[in-house]
Design brief:
Strand 24 and strand 25 form a beta hairpin. The protein is α/β, with parallel strands linked by helices. The strands form 6 sheets. The protein has a 9-stranded mixed β-sheet with strand order 2-1-11-10-12-13-14-15-16, with helices on both faces. The chain contains 17 helices and 26 strands.
């Protein structure tokens, strides 16, 4: 028997079996059951349909982790419209590019971020603009709650196929303009099934939204948590005190956090010694640069939580591997910390390989380095309107596999461990930052003659952008500009999280005979006291 795999099934199932159970704890204090959550999503579907939104149209959502994001996402997807979540850390120019590139037809924006859309609204194709607090937003915006109150819950759900596109998630633009990662109902559904299995989701879980919902649909948790009938606890931002308070008061059992979030929690714990759990056992998933063993040890031994280290990319669902292979370590043994640092083994139904330049698998000696490639049902369909980039991503070393761009080794158990990156990408606090984009920005400063940007180790962020600058004056001792001015210059011209954090003035950059900058030498020097060169120290 063949039954189409549709993302709308997740909320449908929750409403059928958990309708009168609490579904969402809102940041505004309201609590919604699955019946109430579903009714609000239905009303938003009706609102969008009244404004001409149809199957295949794109609906953008710009929102922190509030109940509005969940309602807007499902409201759009119930029409077969393509959910297009936006990174709220971007600039108006970034949004203008994405909205035009995707051909977005309607936008829901949280009141805190609508001001980034207002200056560009005349330049984008969208005609419907909705926010959750019109009184605090300039311009002509419609009220989300007002629209729901004036609407009924009747809408016509179109027939959908599992190979229809249903989400577009934009990359961080680490190698040029952001690319729209196109994912089908089938991709999203199977990825959510895998998350449910490997993250061990159950209907009595209480999930705390510390991971941005815009990050590949919150790693698929807008689907998986909903589908199993678990509870969403929403947030408007991440702070250590609020996380610990929510965990205690809501009996949170599961959350996600980049290494920078783990560090923030540890710092607060060491200063305040808060209670780290309510009545439920807590598990946490982390990804990005692998957390140091000391971090894992504190989270597990001091907090009493269970840590799962996972790995992936926007293009792959994102999750494709887990270090949670319990037959390889004892739950109380110290060896588990070194194992949990690794990116791990492939998810069910996911083929993860590490291959050399000829496309051959490297030996399982934990020494030979190759590139990670992956094939699985959760991998994207294509890049939006970018056939050449799509072809390149799937055909570099091995035909038919998505190429991650990460260089890794494999141990005797098949566990992958990233050693370096093929592309010049800096992962700081879970965000991808392009060294090339930063270099281009710094080159615009009149005092900069040459520059190379690399990741530098950071206790707080895992790694952070550092610029080696050859001053136009030719004298590193008298560069004609100070480091703080260059930091501010990048912050003024790029999204804040992309700004360079450290600057070192040098007389020259190391280069090859042909004049190409040897960033490897700079990275090696910067990371010589660390275990690895990708923020895993």
């Amino acid at each position: 028997m063949h039954k189409p795999l549709l993302v709308t099934d997740f909320l449908d199932r929750a409403r059928e079996y958990y309708g009168d159970h609490e579904a969402v704890v809102a940041t505004t204090g309201e609590r919604y059951t699955y019946d109430e959550f579903g009714d609000r999503a239905d009303r938003f579907s009706a609102v969008l349909q009244d404004r001409g939104i149809e199957k295949g149209d794109r609906v953008a959502v710009l929102d922190p982790n509030t109940h509005y994001h969940l309602e807007a996402a499902y409201g759009a997807m119930q029409l077969g419209a393509i959910h297009t979540p936006l990174n709220y850390r971007l600039t108006p120019d970034d949004f203008a590019y994405i909205l035009e590139d995707a051909g977005v037809d309607a936008i829901y924006a949280d009141y805190e971020y609508a001001e980034k859309i207002e200056p560009i609204r005349e330049a984008v194709p969208a005609e419907t603009f909705v926010t959750n607090d019109v009184d605090t937003v300039e311009g002509d915006w419609e009220s989300f709650d007002g629209l729901l109150e004036a609407s009924d819950a009747d809408y016509d759900r179109p027939e959908m196929a599992e190979d229809d596109l249903i989400t577009i998630n934009y990359t961080s633009g680490t190698t040029g303009d952001p690319k729209g990662v196109c994912r089908t109902h089938r991709c999203e559904t199977l990825h959510a099934h895998l998350v449910t299995i490997h993250q061990e989701l159950r209907d009595d879980d209480v999930y705390l939204w510390t991971l941005p919902m815009f990050h590949v649909n919150g790693w698929g948790h807008i689907f998986a948590v909903t589908g199993v009938g678990a509870k969403h606890v929403c947030t408007r931002g991440v702070d250590a005190a609020g996380i610990f308070e929510s965990i205690r008061e809501e009996d949170v059992s599961y959350l996600c956090g980049a290494p920078t979030v783990l560090n923030m929690l540890i710092e607060y714990f060491e200063r305040r010694e808060p209670e780290t759990a309510g009545d439920a056992d807590v598990r946490i998933a982390t990804a990005g640069s692998a957390p140091p063993e000391a971090t894992i040890r504190t989270v597990e031994d001091e907090f009493g939580w269970y840590l799962k280290h996972v790995y992936g990319a926007t293009e792959t669902g994102p999750l494709i591997t887990t270090s949670d292979a319990r037959r390889t370590f004892d739950d109380d043994g110290r060896e588990r910390f070194s194992i949990k640092k690794r990116q791990g083994i492939g998810y069910l139904g996911t083929e993860v390989r590490v291959v050399d330049e000829d496309g051959e698998d490297v030996p399982r000696d934990d020494e030979t380095v190759g590139e990670i490639v992956v094939r699985g049902n959760q991998v994207m369909a294509e890049y939006w309107n970018k056939p050449e980039e799509t072809d390149e991503a799937f055909s570099d070393r091995v035909e038919g596999y998505y190429h991650m761009g990460d260089l890794a080794t494999v141990d005797e158990n098949g566990m992958v461990s990233i050693q370096d990156r093929k592309k010049d990408i800096i992962i700081s606090g879970g965000e991808n930052i392009s060294s090339i984009e930063l270099e281009d920005a710094l080159f615009e400063h009149e005092a900069v003659a040459d520059v190379a940007v690399i990741p530098a180790p950071s206790e707080e962020w895992g790694e952070t952008p550092k610029a080696f600058v050859v001053p136009a004056s030719g004298d590193p001792g008298d560069p004609g500009v100070n480091a703080d001015e260059l930091v501010d210059f990048t912050r003024d011209n790029l999204a804040g999280y992309k700004a360079v954090r450290r600057v070192e003035f040098v007389a020259e950059l190391p280069t090859t005979a042909t004049g190409k900058v040897q960033k490897y030498e700079l990275r090696q020097r910067e990371w010589e006291d660390e275990d690895r060169m990708v923020g895993e120290g």
